[in-house]
Amino acid sequence: MKLWQKEGVTTAEQIERFTVGRDREMDLYLAPFDVLGNLAHAQMLETIGLLTDHELSLLNDELKAIYQDIEEGSFVIEEGVEDVHSQVELLLTRTLGNVGKKIHSGRSRNDQVLVDLKLFTRDRLWRVAEATQRVFDRLIDRSEQHKNDLLPGYTHLQIAMPSSFGLWFGAYAEALADDMLTLQTAYRLSNRNPLGSGAGYGSSFPLNRTLTTELLGFEGMHVNVVYAQMSRGKTEQTALTALAAIAATISRMAMDICLYNSQNFGFLTLPDALTTGSSIMPHKKNPDVAELLRAKTNRLKALPMEVTLVMSNLPSGYHRDMQLLKEILMPAFDELLDCLDITEFMLEHIQVKTNLLDDSKYDLLFSVERVNELVLQGVPFREAYQTVGKEIAEHTYNPPRTLHHTHEGSIGNLGTELIVDHMAKAVAGFGVDRAQNAIETLLGRSR
């Protein structure tokens, strides 16, 4: 029977197939977190007299055994079982009989799903944070490695002023440091406890929500039980907005790499292992990795709007529409983690070309340097600007190729340590140790 099913009541097979949809597939993502929620809930039930010490001990042992099965990959949601919550309760009941049936006291499937989703999202956001940090570190390394290798800077896709690979790599590093703040916000929103909100209206049992908050390592709880249910949708949208921010950074960098790798630009080279060929043109070395990164991350940028559309015009309370949010949220983490992994690999092997600005076609990049040279000689800026413009028009312009950029964040002073500090503070703001320590304690493991 389903968790909600009454004696003698059946649902048409077609209706069941439609309403369950991909839920059993998506619920495999939630399996370890459902067990964690059960462990915390059981401990709390014992403190308010709804479980005995012996019953709690039995449930703890069996739940930890199920968790181990999940870790080893042997856990399945059996045919005919509606979701992960039903499967876990079925396993408990098979082994423990009526003791297993007691686990649902004071709880609705609504807050059970919510706590699973919060724990899942919290876990995956931290995994994304770790992967983002690895890409950030690679960018910082390449920035320092190539700080003296100059690169044309563009505005309107026309040469503008001198840049450097140090600046280019460093720019994307700082972008990821900002993205980490968005990720931290999403993490902290997911790091709030909805357990005890029931179907959105609480319980007449004297549930200890503070205890389950502590046991699961949440930063705090969603206090108002109605709002706890309203956080469904908001949590997913905020998480996907954070993923979309990182995706946008990776997408833009991938586009730069596609351009810079082309013969017309020729600023960098992707080694053979990172390119593919053409079936007809023997000279081709296509930047497929960068192109696919661009496409995959562009798709991720659309996901917050999908959540917005699913949630549009829904009143307060739970609605089955929200089931579809799992299909949007869960695969998105896998996709972005894969993209971050390949991005780090590509950045490690990308080859930078040196002495690019020695080419006379880049002479005009130094026009501002020439203006500044005159200003330092005492010529007013507007007059110096007009003078250099005239030199260019009359072909008397002589570019000064020695650069004197010293301010923070410029070619001669990348400010790398400031960017690294920015990222470190963003990562520290997650407060992840609290969550990790709590989970290990709940499982009876030591860190």
UniProtKB/TrEMBL annotation:
<dbReference type="GO" id="GO:0042450">
    <property type="term" value="P:L-arginine biosynthetic process via ornithine"/>
</dbReference>
<dbReference type="Pfam" id="PF00206">
    <property type="entry name" value="Lyase_1"/>
</dbReference>
<feature type="domain" description="Fumarate lyase N-terminal">
    <location>
        <begin position="12"/>
        <end position="298"/>
    </location>
</feature>
<dbReference type="InterPro" id="IPR020557">
    <property type="entry name" value="Fumarate_lyase_CS"/>
</dbReference>
<dbReference type="InterPro" id="IPR008948">
    <property type="entry name" value="L-Aspartase-like"/>
</dbReference>
<keyword id="KW-0055">Arginine biosynthesis</keyword>
<dbReference type="InterPro" id="IPR024083">
    <property type="entry name" value="Fumarase/histidase_N"/>
</dbReference>
<dbReference type="GO" id="GO:0004056">
    <property type="term" value="F:argininosuccinate lyase activity"/>
</dbReference>
<keyword id="KW-0456">Lyase</keyword>
<comment type="similarity">
    <text>Belongs to the lyase 1 family. Argininosuccinate lyase subfamily.</text>
</comment>
<dbReference type="GO" id="GO:0005829">
    <property type="term" value="C:cytosol"/>
</dbReference>
<dbReference type="InterPro" id="IPR000362">
    <property type="entry name" value="Fumarate_lyase_fam"/>
</dbReference>
<keyword id="KW-0028">Amino-acid biosynthesis</keyword>
<dbReference type="InterPro" id="IPR022761">
    <property type="entry name" value="Fumarate_lyase_N"/>
</dbReference>
<dbReference type="InterPro" id="IPR009049">
    <property type="entry name" value="Argininosuccinate_lyase"/>
</dbReference>
<keyword id="KW-0963">Cytoplasm</keyword>
<comment type="pathway">
    <text>Amino-acid biosynthesis; L-arginine biosynthesis; L-arginine from L-ornithine and carbamoyl phosphate: step 3/3.</text>
</comment>
<protein>
    <recommendedName>
        <fullName>Argininosuccinate lyase</fullName>
        <ecNumber>4.3.2.1</ecNumber>
    </recommendedName>
</protein>
